[in-house]
Amino acid sequence: MKYLKSGFVLLLGLFLFLGGGYMMFKSNQVSKSWQSTKAVVKETETRSDRRDNVADKDYLNQTFDHELYIRYVYSVRNQDYTSTWKKAASAKTTDEIIDWLEFEEGQPFQIGNQIEIRYNPDNPEESEPRINSFAENGLWGLLIGLLTIIGGILIFRTED
Fold this sequence. Notes:
5-stranded antiparallel beta sheet; 3 helices; elongated
């Protein structure tokens, strides 16, 4: 049983670690090969949906799904392009909802604001806002994977 538990935890940690590494690699490739430019936010739209937990109708067990759409315009080689970026989040607690509302209302995605974007020089219609997100560049996967691997080693060493 000792080998089964520690082996499962080690494999899970390895999977998360490799997944995070792959995400970091892809993020790094995009940032090296894509060009940066400024864009102007033309439109923002938010969509929210409340999902009740089927097992419990208590307000505290509701989940709120949020999507933020940002339409922006940028120019590459005297050609204008319009692109839309979507950010999705799911909030369970009041604190998460407040964090989302601050993100949604705020900065830097107000209409008329300039934002930095990256675009594919081979296909300038392909673009994304330049956001240094801890989750999107794979660091969470690396950190959680590393901690899980350490946990698997500890399980193996301490269990009799």
